[in-house]
Amino acid sequence: MATPALKDLPKVDVDLKSALESFSPTALKSASTEEKCLLPTAEDVKMEKVQQLVSGIEGFDSTKLRHTETNEKNPLPDKDAVAAEKTHNALISGVEHFDKSTMKHTETEEKNHLPPIEAIQQEKSQHDFINGIEHFNRTSLKHAETQEKNPLPTKEVIDQEKAA
Fold it and tell me: CA geometry: angle at 87 spanning 86 and 90, to 5°?
């Protein structure tokens, strides 16, 4: 970063400039600083919390407690749960200890469930036909005037037919 030129620096008032140049640090008074607000240390905070906890325990009024009866429940399973667990364990052990030598050998046959080629071609031609209709360019059509070739009968022809 380049230093600015003298003409780019801000201008200082002449009175202020002369006061700054004639300033003497020996004219200042000596002063001592005192810290007025002392913060507690971490140990002090910890001790205060422990004292609050102990005073809370000591000052607890046990007369505000209510008497309750405890009910012990039987954690043992009933007969139905034991029977269900036995059947489940019997099924699992039956699957684990199954004798595979009693099974017969089989060959698997893979079948092709795809439609025949004719059905695919028919569906493709139908799809192309529908796309041709949907994406038809109407601007390629020529304008045509319709001419009626079967005119309505005149009043005289109607009167002749009525007379006949």
Answer: 85
